[in-house]
Design a protein that fits this description.
mainly alpha, Multidrug-efflux Transporter Regulator, Chain: A, Domain 2, two-stranded antiparallel sheet
């Protein structure tokens, strides 16, 4: 499929596709000097979006794609890399949750104190 059909299929913009191509996340075939997108590119795009929703950066995703290309889908190296990236993201989320909980508690304490002052 040509770029226009690909954009409609994956519901994205030309800029996004070009950016992913520049990072070698999408690598469409070239037929007669024209890019041709197939099911592999659709699946790769969907994987990119799923990994982004899990909180991985495009650099993290690129590392995983490089592992996949070097060692194959389902390889121990790819799985280890994915686990490492997801573990790292989980730690960042847990740290953020702790920070937010401390902030929530501080706001709560301030609110309780202000309400107590207002009731005097």
């Amino acid at each position: 499929m040509r770029i226009g059909e690909f954009l409609q299929t994956v519901e994205t913009t030309l800029d996004t596709v070009r950016h992913y191509e520049s990072l070698a996340l999408l690598q469409p075939a070239r037929i007669n000097r024209q890019k041709e997108y197939g099911q592999a590119e659709v699946q790769a795009f969907q994987v990119i979006k799923e990994l982004q929703q899990a909180g991985l950066s495009l650099e993290d995703i690129r590392l995983l794609f490089n592992l996949k290309q070097a060692h194959g889908c389902g390889s121990a190296e790819l799985i280890d890399g994915a686990v490492e990236q997801l573990d790292s993201q989980l730690r960042r989320v847990e740290e953020e949750l702790l920070r937010l909980e401390k902030r929530r508690q501080s706001l709560w304490d301030t609110l309780v104190a202000l309400r107590g002052e207002a009731g005097k």
